[in-house]
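Assess this:
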Amino acid sequence: MASARPQLPPTLALPAAARNLVLRCRAVSTMDAASASSPGAEKKTTTVFVAGSTGRTGKRVVEKLLAKGFGVVAGTTDIGRARGSLPQNPNLQLVRADVTEGADKLVEVVRGVDAVVCATGFRRSFDPFAPWKVDNFGTVNLVEACRKAGVTRFVLVSSILVNGAAMGQLLNPAYIVLNLLGLTLVAKLQAENHIRKSGINYTIVRPGGLTDQPSTGNIVMEPEDTFYSGSISRDQVAEVAVGALLSTESSYGVVEIVARADAPNRPVEDMFAAIKQK
């Protein structure tokens, strides 16, 4: 599904088919020009589908993508809520998308996009299977929809400690608490494993504990299974997720991120380039 196109000047009086072709060509040229206006433009995709676009992290991903000149297709289960919470922008298109409803229903909403960012997360409820429906099966559904639609770039926002058992963190309070909520971390890990085997060019971003406040520190990025504690602002998580789309070094990689007051302020692309994958 194509993204909402920028406003274009009226065309000359042409036959309908020719006029539509001119409009499509101008839209593509306008989007390319917007992308070229920022550093690293040669690495940018044109249109990105964001799952979980009205969530506290997903909303920030949408905002940062638009600021970088991307076209965005924002997937949401509530179009009305999305209209009220997301920016009004000619490069933003809202579509109804529920990752729990299966891959076949998601194929059409991701068809034609260049990349997908998955920033979904289950909402607390009385349903003990909610984490698996969203963080496992929902992510798997989205990956399979991408495979069917020919989308080959996927960025997943996951969590540190998903592999806590293998890291010797079974007694870590954070690992225990998060898994009390329907084995959330186990569900996320299974989804990660599916992505790794999918053949899609993936980047998995595992943030520490998420905060809504502006960060008081700079991003620290390490390979998978490094951090067992730490926090980071959602703004910084969104920055890294978008940065993954701009960095060739992020391909087929898993990174973990937290924020620390004593860390140097480094460009995201430089941090990806410094990571040695396990």
User: Anything to note?
Assistant: The CA atoms of residues 162 and 185 lie 5 Å apart. The two ends are 36 Å apart (CA to CA).
